[in-house]
Design brief:
heterodimer, A: 254 residues, alpha/beta, Rossmann fold, 6-stranded mixed sheet, 4-stranded antiparallel sheet, 10 strands, globular, B: 261 residues, mainly alpha, MetI-like fold, 11 helices, binds adenosine-5'-diphosphate, binds magnesium ion
Chain lengths: 254, 261
């Protein structure tokens, strides 16, 4: 049974341009799937349709046996607790400490008042420290996030997603702002999430080689359409050209 | 290329300077303000001020009464500012692009801010005077309304600066609006917001004197009363008290600013 099922998904921000066209996709529990494609292909938009950070116009998304499009506000909030999200720019609250930022991931399970007062249970706090330790940044727990390096901030972002106890983690270019060393650490951690915790990962990536190294399956997106879908080893030079093709040609001409 | 730009720049400043000189002459011509005549009266006026506004034994006896109204004025300014800050917090949230609820409330907040900010506090005093009469509520409201406009605008900009990123992240975890506001937006702009509130308290203590003269409350009323009864020594003392109070408040708020920033 698929964890995520996308049928005929279509999205446009303005009436004159369709950003996503007829996307069909199934993702099974425990899979590590990468989406690659040139910038502007619609990768970020697609990821945000899944947890309705962006409202889609056509088609149907089923997550965890629920019809995502038909959820009301309360149900949507409930569903979002099951989907963690990791961002290119980490999207932490820079003036707050690492541990506070991690615990933000619990808001979805709390009433507004509990959240405002910062009431966390002992188990939640313990879990937060466990996760920090697992990601190797426990000694920074009480530092402000703006004092951390990019790679460390991204690990805080991953902790915040994991403390949600999600079934799926969406990562939007998690390593695009990082140096090669930190990138490898982050990708290894993301891979460990699927292999050790069994959490499904859907990752937007810029780098084809990284996608090939880590993914069970790769999806190539170009101008809002899926132009490739298959295992890493099935991705040939020719297909890479097809995914990035139009863009590189344009670049050469320009 | 670079040299050309520099030369163009120099020409621009020369033209700008010329325009200012012409405007100055023209406006002094149409208002019939004679700069030199004005300048000549300065020594004379200074002499008058020194001899008439000096503080005497007689005026010192009025000090307790003056202090009482001064303290009253300071507290009114603080109360008007903090209440305005509470209102502005919500208007700022509705108006800022980071935290806006819907576009109707956003336009509404911006409209309120713009109206109350663009009418000077003296004009507000006069407008409110018509409906509320000469009492302390009028003075309070005048300061309050002007402050709401200014703080809403300032808060809105601070919140805009926080940006969408952490708000987006918390929305994706399933957090509610007020959880996001209290844990992602406010912590990020709190130092700036406190700094603006302190600034407005300073400003309001200064304007409270003027507002008091118009609405018959606080230190402004005391000033006005002595002024109209020609008790210039007392006027001098009141002025001195106001100056000292403003300097003190300045020092205190600068200290607080240093601590929070
Ligand atoms: N909020 C938005 N409003 C209008 N157009 C948008 C918005 N977000 C993205 N787009 C457009 O959608 C297209 C795809 O963007 P995006 O999903 O960010 O692509 P990618 O992540 O693959 O680079 C781009 O052409 C972009 O200009
Ligand atoms: Mg993107």
């Amino acid at each position: 049974m698929a964890l995520l099922k996308v049928e005929g998904l279509g999205k446009s921000y303005t009436s004159d341009k369709k950003i996503l066209k007829n996307i069909n996709l199934e993702i099974n529990p425990g899979e590590f799937v990468s989406i690659i494609g040139p910038s502007g292909a619609g990768k970020s938009t697609f990821l945000r349709c899944i947890n309705r950070m962006v409202e889609f116009n056509e088609g149907k998304i089923t997550f965890n046996q629920q019809d995502v499009g038909s959820l009301n506000k309360r149900e949507l909030r409930r569903m979002r607790t099951n989907i963690g999200m990791v961002f290119q720019h980490y999207n932490l609250v820079p003036r707050l400490t690492v541990i506070e930022n991690v615990l933000h991931g619990r808001f979805g399970y709390k009433t507004t008042m509990q959240g405002i007062l910062g009431r966390y249970t002992e188990e939640e706090k313990e879990r937060a420290f466990e996760l920090l330790e697992k990601l190797g940044i426990q000694e920074h727990a009480y530092k402000r996030c703006d004092q951390l390096s990019g790679g460390q901030q991204q690990r805080v972002g991953i902790c915040r997603a994991l403390i949600q106890e999600p079934k799926l983690v969406l990562c939007d270019e998690p390593i695009a702002s990082l140096d090669p060393n930190s990138s490898k650490i982050i990708m290894d951690h993301l891979k460990a999430i699927t292999t050790e915790l069994g959490i499904t990962c859907l990752v937007n990536l810029h780098q084809v080689d990284v996608a090939q190294n880590y993914s069970d399956r790769i999806i190539g997106l170009n101008q809002g359409e899926i132009v490739f879908e298959g295992a890493s080893h099935q991705l040939s030079e020719e297909q890479i050209h097809k995914i990035y093709g139009t863009k590189t040609k344009e670049l050469i001409i320009a | 290329m670079n040299e050309k730009a520099m030369r163009k720049n120099r020409w621009q400043s020369v033209i700008f300077l010329l325009i200012i000189i012409v405007l100055t002459y023209w406006s002094s011509f149409i208002t019939q303000f004679n700069f030199w005549d004005g300048l000549v009266t300065i020594p004379e006026a200074t002499g008058w001020m020194l001899s008439n506004l000096s503080i005497t034994q007689d005026s010192l006896e009025r000090l307790p009464k003056i202090m009482e109204t001064l303290v009253e004025t300071i507290f009114m300014s603080i109360a008007a500012t903090t209440l305005a800050a509470a209102v502005s917090l919500f208007l700022g949230l509705f108006g800022s692009n980071t935290t806006k609820v819907n576009s109707f409330l956003s336009v509404f907040a911006r409209f309120v801010a713009s109206v109350s900010r663009n009418i000077p506090v003296v004009a507000w005093s006069l407008i409110l005077l018509i409906s509320f009469g000469q009492n302390s509520v009028t003075g309070f409201l005048a300061l309050f309304v002007g402050t709401v406009g200014f703080l809403t605008r300032a808060f809105m900009e601070s919140m805009d600066e926080v940006g969408q990123s952490s708000v987006e992240a918390l929305t994706a975890t399933g957090a509610t609006y007020f959880q996001i506001v209290s844990k992602a937006v406010i912590p990020q702009c709190l130092p700036q917001m406190l700094s603006w509130i302190l600034f407005m308290i300073e400003t309001n203590i200064r304007s409270a004197t003027l507002v008091g003269i118009l609405t018959g409350t606080g230190i402004g009323y005391t000033f006005d009363m002595y002024y109209k009864t020609l008790n210039y020594n007392a006027v001098g003392l009141v002025t001195l008290c106001i100056v000292i109070a403003v300097i003190l408040v300045d020092l205190i708020s600068n200290y607080i600013r240093k601590v929070i920033l």
